[in-house]
Amino acid sequence: MVLSANEDGNPVSVGPEGLRVAKKRQARVAIRREALRLFLAQGFAATTVDQIARAANVSPRTLFRYFPTKQAIVLADSGGDQFAQAVRHQPAGLSRIEALRGAVHELFGAQSPDEQWEDLAQERLVTSTPELAAVALTQVRTNIDALTEALTDRAPTQPHTNRQLAGALVGLLLALDVPDQPTGTAFAARVDNALDVLRPSFPE
């Protein structure tokens, strides 16, 4: 048994196989964070794969094992599937709006400062880089599909309004202003207000 560290730097005990998985995850996280930092500082187009690899202390070949393109680095970890799963796991009997609210608090309330910074960096890069925005549109549709399926699992008799609710929530999330120093709890509070706006349009 050996000690590794989780994303927050806290030590955890893992076996040989777990250590390999942990090292791969740490390498992926390091590559993405260094890339986001460089993209924000230099611009997306001006930043090269070689620069990212050097900053993350990996080879370009290793970088491409984790991310096939520069676009993939920015658009990775959109969280759509994770959010959909969180909606599915909310207690039975909750309304759709309350299930969404619970999922938001579960995911964003537990974010580390580094994860909050990554979300902010991703949003700023997507909104300021046309080639990323075009690819992100496809990702938005995928996230709406995943959330629609999760809502339909909870409310199978309302398939049409489930998709409308999923689209409305995703649109509101995209429209929310994100502060320079975001916190998961502050973001969740903003989503609470957005869900309160949606509630009258989506009665159970």
TrEMBL record:
A Pfam entry, by short name: TetR_C_14
Swiss-Prot/TrEMBL keywords: DNA-binding, Transcription, Transcription regulation
Domain HTH tetR-type, first and last residues per copy: 25-85
InterPro entries: DNA-bd_HTH_TetR-type_CS, Homeodomain-like_sf, HTH-type_TetR-like_transc_reg, HTH_TetR, MftR_C
Gene Ontology molecular function: DNA-binding transcription factor activity; transcription cis-regulatory region binding
Residues within the DNA-binding region(s): 48-67
Xref: PANTHER family: HTH-TYPE TRANSCRIPTIONAL REGULATOR RUTR (PTHR30055), MYCOFACTOCIN BIOSYNTHESIS TRANSCRIPTIONAL REGULATOR MFTR-RELATED (PTHR30055:SF238)
UniProt-recorded name of the protein: TetR family transcriptional regulator
Lineage of source species: Bacteria, Bacillati, Actinomycetota, Actinomycetes, Micromonosporales
